[in-house]
Specification:
Elements lengths: L2 H6 L3 H9 L2 H25 L1 H38 L19
């Protein structure tokens, strides 16, 4: 009997070695890859922070402040039109509604 050949061809040692490479090591490998990708992603962000941070801040400001600006401008415009209609001095600044384009309420 040769113990070295039996253990390499399917003895107890080979099945134990095959069983140790299972789902646990696969999840560990995936976690290690995720950590490495996250690390290099953070390194890239740090490297390009002079370009990315102002761009991200401008994008956030535009996306948040644009609707606020639109509502504010609409309120101010309506207030100004109402003020111009009430004060007779500003009647020259207002244009009357066109005949074919009257708004229906």
């Amino acid at each position: 009997r040769d113990h070295s050949v039996g253990s390499l061809r399917g003895g107890f040692g080979a099945s134990a070695a095959a069983g140790s490479v299972g789902y646990g090591s696969l999840y560990g490998f995936k976690a290690a890859v995720a950590v490495i990708v996250f690390y290099f992603g953070v390194k890239m962000l740090v490297q390009f922070e002079e370009i990315l941070l102002p761009f991200i801040m401008a994008l956030i400001l535009v996306s948040v402040l644009e609707p606020v600006k639109q509502v504010t401008m609409e309120v101010l415009e309506c207030t100004l039109v109402l003020l111009f209609q009430r004060v007779p001095i500003f009647n020259c600044c207002l244009r009357g509604p066109r005949k074919g384009h009257m708004r229906r309420e």
